[in-house]
């Protein structure tokens, strides 16, 4: 090969290397640009990661704060509260739960509910609530159970349970509130018993009133009858007194007695027996109270007081009593006239 050919060959190879070098240079620039872009993406990703980490820290702080807030609420509620996990193990409980059922956090948290207190909570109705009823409804209210506890004795409890909402892929939590209604139920039973006794006593009193009014009405009717006969006889005596055969001295002496004193006394008898008859009618109506509807009506209190004063006119005149009555407002009374007897009860000794 001649020297020129060799030089030409070397130049060709040199051009080829220069071309390759240019291509490598272009590739290097491209790689540099890609590397810069990657660095920018990396910086952006790093910033995003830092922001996510900060957000996670804030969320953890919020979650911790919310949990502390919830625990503080639970600890102050004056009702036993228990939070259970999906396996029905105790996650936490209120202080009132520990106090009421005489257990400690150490022997409670992390334990199965049914194993608490030497398995005192192994209650079939409670198992039915948590394992069958609650999963179907997610909320159960006023579920009543009874149980004999070893330490605290017989209890009647009202349970309320609900499933707490959790984020995705997290196990469920169950909030169980326990209200001791033993004393309330006992009070209700006592009240029911007292009501039964009251009804029995009321019925007995009504029967006594009914019998008494009927027994008293019989002699009252006799008094009213004899009073009428006395009035008839008095009229006959008055007619006889007008006979010319009767001496004038006798007529003068008997006339005030037959025409004033005896009629006045008979008036008081009639008025008193009528009032007693009305009183017995009222007592009879009172004995039927509860079996019939009470009807209210207006009553003239001025007329009522006037009738009472008239009924006691004899005693008032005899003792020189002066009665002053101002104008009274109207009132209302029931069908058995209870108000009508009130003034009489105040005046009678």
UniProtKB/TrEMBL annotation:
EC number: 2.7.13.3
Domain of life: Bacteria
Record domain PAC: where: 141-193
Gene Ontology MF term list: phosphorelay sensor kinase activity
Catalyzed reactions: ATP + protein L-histidine = ADP + protein N-phospho-L-histidine
Coiled coil location: 4-69
InterPro entries in the cross-refs: HisK_dim/P_sf, PAS, PAS-assoc_C, PAS-like_dom_sf, Sensor_kinase/Photoreceptor
Keywords of this entry: Coiled coil, Kinase, Phosphoprotein, Transferase
NCBIfam families: sensory_box
Name this protein carries in UniProt: histidine kinase
Organism: Draconibacterium halophilum
């Amino acid at each position: 090969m001649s020297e020129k050919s060799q030089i030409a060959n070397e130049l060709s190879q040199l051009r080829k290397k220069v071309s390759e070098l240019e291509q490598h240079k272009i590739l290097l620039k491209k790689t540099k640009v890609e590397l810069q872009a990657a660095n920018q993406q990396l910086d952006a990703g790093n910033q995003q990661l830092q922001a996510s980490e900060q957000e996670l820290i804030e969320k953890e702080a919020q979650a911790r704060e919310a949990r502390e807030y919830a625990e503080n609420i639970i600890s102050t509620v004056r009702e036993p509260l228990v939070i259970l996990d999906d396996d029905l193990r105790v996650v936490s409980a209120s202080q009132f739960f520990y106090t009421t059922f005489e257990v400690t956090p150490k022997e409670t948290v992390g334990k199965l509910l049914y194993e608490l207190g030497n398995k005192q909570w192994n209650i079939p109705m409670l198992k039915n609530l948590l394992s069958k009823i609650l999963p179907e409804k997610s909320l159960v209210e006023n579920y009543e159970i009874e149980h004999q506890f070893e330490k605290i004795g017989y209890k009647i409890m009202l349970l309320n349970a609900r499933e707490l909402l959790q984020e995705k892929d997290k196990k469920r939590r169950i909030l169980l509130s326990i209200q001791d209604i033993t004393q309330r139920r006992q009070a209700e039973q006592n009240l029911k018993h007292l009501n039964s006794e009251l009804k029995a006593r009321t019925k007995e009193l009504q029967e006594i009133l009914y019998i008494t009014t009927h027994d008293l009405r019989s002699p009252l009717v006799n008094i009213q009858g004899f009073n009428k006969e006395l009035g008839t006889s008095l009229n006959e005596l008055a007619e006889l007194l007008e006979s010319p055969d009767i001496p004038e001295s006798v007529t003068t002496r008997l006339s005030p007695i037959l025409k004033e004193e005896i009629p006045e006394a008979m008036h008081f008898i009639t008025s008193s027996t009528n009032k007693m008859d009305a009183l017995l009618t009222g007592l009879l109506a009172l004995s039927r109270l509860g079996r019939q509807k009470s009807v209210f009506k207006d009553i003239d209190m001025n007329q009522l007081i006037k009738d009472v004063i008239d009924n006691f006119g004899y005693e008032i005149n005899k003792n020189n009593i002066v009665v002053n009555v101002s104008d009274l407002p109207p009132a209302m009374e029931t069908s058995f006239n209870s108000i009508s007897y009130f003034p009489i009860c105040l005046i009678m000794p």
